[in-house]
């Protein structure tokens, strides 16, 4: 499972209200502003916090109930489904043929998860005969009395006919997976001309039981076969291979998909729609990309590195991709970022349906690698309970690092490492849980920056500790010993212990089973040939451990680095390191592999030395971030100018961010450098950041640079130019911006809304109302607030239509972030429209989402 953009963001929000930040539309999130510590903070489209009222302080013990693994009474063996659809009613008519057997103890009953069905019949199949069985059904559990008692050596087969009505369910959801009704009809009547008619499913965590009866637990495994009867113009996709496709006399077609390798029920999927299918191969196996027809010309550019990823991961793990095929389908309105269904991954169309111009700014390698790696960690070996979810998600998260390291180099991988560390540390300001946690209120709570970003960083530390050869050998052992089964964290630990010969309980206990992370304060001094390095662990040791930290410290003497391995085991510890003279630099954790909040005392001279002698981009990045407050110093500003020419784009971007509002001695030269990067840099992220930096210089005219950027090939750069012109509009640019009003690009729509919020007239009032349906759900939060800002300049008598639109969205939009944006848009108008106060109070009173009610209470 890959988070949706907003799903991730809602998990890393802090407990302070802040102004919304402009979204950066790139495949990777980029740092917003220099961090004052070692960590980097990603640019976030949403900066609204979870309320302090709902934050559980990290120092409190858990109060949630213990969540054991599901007891296995019956083993699912195989499920065959025969389904057809009523698009108008949004129903599924199904027949499920289930093969099962008792797990160990004899059984005369089978209990299945089946949410909101009309059950028509339940029969046992014996030879060629069928016999009706008695059952009870409470709309959630189907309890079937078998025809006799069966032992664990006696499989039996049942046939259930039913109607699934997912839209009639009381649905739940979470930040990561916004709905749990299992089966979704998109534009079912074809009335929305902006969306295709599609059908798709989403099973994680336990939502597939909303469209077929099953034992909906991650520690079950089954083979499967699905026959889908659809209108002939549609294409279908499901797990496994298409073994039959038959045209029917009524104009429909029945496709049969069969998966012969067993997988957990939540990994079963269907998709139906008017897809273009682009074919590829890997070692003779079919690899396919399902996209909307208008994106078929760029599908290979987006997905085409998939076979290379399959080869890389197969060789790296020593376990070949063994599933029958690999397909990826981009769908509309998906309720998460992506989902690792075996052999048939589902992805939000916003993630991968990119035109050539969008591809200039980003690719989809991160989500593609993430879901592919799940076919080893999550599909081949599945976490036996949601408590052990990091066994799926931490590995998938880390695959993004592994692929970037392989394909794009160590700097790109290191950048990902620090971004994800920052995302976890952001979440840790309001939430600290064990990585593998057996106490939670709802299984959806597991889908957070702990299971993903923290988990990936813990795996990185484990790799650095044991070494690459042992790390990947241990992963191979874990996969081969637990293949086609459900695993838990102890089995991963034992695989590493078997390979390394070392008792690693200390590592797994402190990193996987304890909450929190090290908070380190590092100082050093030099006397008589000795460096005294003091390491203090200042985290709350009542509910977080005092960590055992094997760390490398690097000293530079006469421009020669020397590495020293130390072992931190105490809350306050001083290490003596021999040095023939005072080192130019003492660097703790020079590889930046440690998951920690680190404050390391260094002088300006040491940080400058660190930058010029850095052996990786993160050492440069850290020096830039920590020296941004000293930008007026000539030596520091010279370093920043040097960084503007760095070969890695992330360093150039960091320097640009630190140069915002620069007033130092090299002012004219710095501005010329920034303007040059805005035009010439080969990376669109850098050109965009250069424009943003130019716009930070108050009372200075860079209008010609912004107007020139309106011709840039990159949407990201164009959006930044529009944002800059919003604060400093020019006559020359006005008509060119107006010519963009018909765009459908998400980046430009948000940028235009920002521009018109500050510079619009009554003409743009109608534009806001007309385009609101074209704005992506990810961007509505910002767009709707910009609409409210524009209406402040409209006469109150002319606002009614806009107010009505915002009120409807604040009350009814399915995404809580959009409802919040509409609410805040309305709240801007209360001073001039006092009656809105009662409306806002009513919206607040009727809101059921606790995240929103808590935020609303802070906005009063």
Characterize this entry briefly.
The chain is α+β, with helices and mostly antiparallel strands and 860 residues long.
Structural notes for this entry:
- With 860 residues, the protein is α+β, with helices and mostly antiparallel strands.
- Among the domains are: 5-66 and 420-512, Neutral Protease, domain 2; 74-274, tricorn interacting facor f3 domain (Immunoglobulin-like), CATH 2.60.40.1730; 519-606, Immunoglobulin-like (Sandwich); 740-860.
- 35% of the residues lie in helices and 23% in strands.
- It is built from 28 helices and 29 strands.
- A hairpin with a 2-residue loop joins strand 25 and strand 26.
- Helix 9 packs across helix 10 (468-481).
- The longest helix has 19 residues, at 390-408.
- The chain starts with a helix and ends with a helix.
- The model is unreliable at 5-59 (pLDDT under 50).
- InterPro entries: Aminopeptidase_N-like_N, Aminopeptidase_N-like_N_sf, ARM-like, ARM-type_fold, Peptidase_M1, Peptidase_M1_aminopeptidases, Peptidase_M1_dom, Peptidase_M4/M1_CTD_sf.
Give the helix tally: 28
CATH class membership of one domain: Mainly Beta
Mean pLDDT: 92
- Give the proportion of residues in helices: 25-40%
Runs in which pLDDT lies below 50 for 5 or more consecutive residues are 5-59
Q: How far is the N terminus from the C terminus?
A: 37 Å
Q: How much is the radius of gyration in Å?
A: 28 Å
The shape, in one word, is: globular
Overall number of strands: 29
CATH superfamily heading of one domain: tricorn interacting facor f3 domain
Enzyme class: hydrolase
Keywords: Aminopeptidase, Hydrolase, Metal-binding, Metalloprotease, Protease, Signal, Zinc
Pfam family, one: Peptidase_M1_N
Cofactor: Zn(2+)
């Amino acid at each position: 499972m890959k988070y949706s953009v907003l799903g991730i963001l809602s998990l890393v929000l802090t407990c302070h209200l802040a102004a919304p930040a402009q979204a950066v539309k790139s495949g990777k999130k980029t740092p917003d502003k220099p961090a004052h510590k070692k960590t980097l903070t990603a640019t976030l489209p949403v900066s609204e916090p979870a309320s302090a009222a709902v934050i559980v302080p990290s120092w409190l013990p858990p109060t949630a109930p213990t969540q054991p693994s599901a007891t296995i009474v019956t083993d699912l063996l195989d499920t065959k489904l025969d389904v057809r659809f009523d698009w108008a009613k949004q129903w599924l008519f199904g027949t499920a043929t289930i093969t099962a057997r008792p797990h160990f103890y004899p059984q005369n009953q089978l209990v299945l998860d089946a949410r909101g069905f009309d059950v028509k019949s339940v029969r046992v199949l014996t030879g060629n005969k069928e016999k009706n069985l008695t059952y009870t059904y409470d709309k959630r559990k189907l309890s079937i009395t078998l025809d006799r008692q069966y032992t664990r050596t006696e499989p039996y087969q049942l046939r259930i006919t039913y109607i699934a009505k997912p839209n009639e369910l009381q649905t739940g959801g979470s930040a990561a997976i916004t709905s749990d009704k299992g089966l979704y009809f998109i534009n079912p009547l074809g009335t929305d001309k902006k969306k295709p008619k599609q059908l798709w499913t989403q099973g994680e965590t336990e939502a597939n039981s909303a469209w077929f009866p099953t034992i909906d637990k991650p520690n079950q495994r089954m083979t499967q076969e699905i026959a889908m009867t659809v209108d002939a113009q549609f294409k279908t996709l499901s797990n496994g291979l298409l073994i039959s496709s038959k045209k029917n006399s009524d104009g429909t077609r029945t496709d049969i998909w069969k998966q012969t390798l067993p997988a957990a029920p939540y990994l079963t999927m269907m998709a139906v729609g008017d897809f273009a299918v682009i074919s590829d191969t890997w070692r003779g196996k079919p690899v396919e990309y399902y996209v909307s027809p208008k994106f078929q010309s760029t599908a290979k550019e987006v997905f085409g590195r998939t076979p290379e990823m399959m080869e890389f991961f197969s060789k790296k793990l020593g376990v070949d991709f063994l599933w029958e095929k690999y397909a990826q389908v981009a769908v509309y309105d998906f309720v998460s970022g992506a989902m690792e269904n075996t052999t048939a991954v589902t992805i939000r169309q916003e993630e991968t349906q990119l035109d050539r111009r969008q591809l200039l700014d980003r690719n989809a390698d991160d989500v593609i690698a993430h879901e592919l790696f799940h076919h080893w960690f999550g599909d081949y070996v599945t976490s036996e309970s949601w408590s052990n979810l990091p066994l799926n998600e931490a590995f998938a998260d880390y695959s993004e690092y592994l692929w970037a390291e392989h394909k794009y180099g160590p700097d790109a991988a290191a950048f990902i490492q620090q971004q994800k560390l920052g995302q976890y540390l952001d979440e840790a300001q309001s939430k600290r849980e064990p990585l593998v946690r057996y106490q939670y209120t709802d299984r959806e709570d597991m889908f957070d920056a702990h299971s993903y970003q923290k988990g990936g960083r813990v795996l990185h530390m484990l790799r650095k500790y044991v070494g690459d050869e042992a790390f990947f050998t241990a992963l191979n052992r874990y996969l081969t010993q637990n293949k086609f089964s459900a695993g838990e964290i102890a089995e991963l630990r034992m695989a590493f212990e078997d390979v390394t010969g070392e008792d690693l309980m200390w590592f797994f206990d402190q990193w996987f089973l304890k909450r929190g992370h090290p908070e380190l304060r590092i100082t050093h001094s030099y006397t008589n040939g000795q460096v005294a390095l003091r390491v203090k662990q200042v985290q709350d040791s009542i509910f977080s451990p005092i960590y055992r930290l094997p760390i490398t410290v690097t000293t530079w003497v006469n421009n020669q680095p020397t590495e020293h391995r130390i072992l931190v085991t105490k809350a306050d510890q001083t290490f003596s390191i021999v040095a023939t003279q005072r080192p130019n630099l003492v660097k703790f954790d020079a590889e930046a592999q440690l998951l920690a909040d680190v404050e390391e005392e260094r002088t300006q001279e040491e940080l400058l030395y660190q930058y010029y002698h850095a052996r990786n981009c993160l050492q440069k990045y850290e020096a830039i971030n920590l020296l941004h407050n000293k930008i007026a110093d000539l030596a520091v500003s010279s370093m920043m100018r040097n960084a503007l020419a760095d070969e890695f784009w992330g360093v150039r971007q960091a320097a640009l961010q630190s140069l915002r509002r620069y007033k130092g001695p090299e002012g004219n030269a710095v501005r010329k450098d920034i303007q040059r990067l805005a035009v010439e840099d080969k990376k669109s992220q850098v050109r965009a950041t250069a424009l943003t930096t130019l716009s930070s210089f108050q009372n200075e005219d860079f209008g010609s640079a912004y107007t020139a950027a309106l011709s840039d090939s990159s949407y990201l750069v164009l959006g930044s130019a529009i944002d800059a012109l919003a604060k400093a509009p020019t006559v020359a640019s006005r008509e060119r911006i107006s010519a963009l009003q018909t765009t459908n690009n998400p980046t430009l729509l948000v940028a235009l809304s920002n521009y018109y919020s500050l510079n619009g007239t009554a003409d743009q009032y109608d534009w806001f109302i007309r385009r609101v349906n074209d704005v992506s759900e990810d961007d509505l939060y910002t767009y709707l607030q910009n609409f409210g800002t524009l209406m402040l300049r409209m006469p109150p008598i002319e606002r009614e239509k806009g107010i009505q639109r915002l009120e409807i969205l604040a009350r009814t939009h399915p995404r809580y972030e959009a409802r919040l944006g509409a609410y805040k848009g309305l709240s801007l108008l209360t001073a001039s429209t006092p009656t809105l106060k009662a409306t806002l109070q009513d919206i607040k009173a009727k809101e059921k989402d606790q995240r929103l009610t808590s935020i609303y209470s802070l906005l009063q």
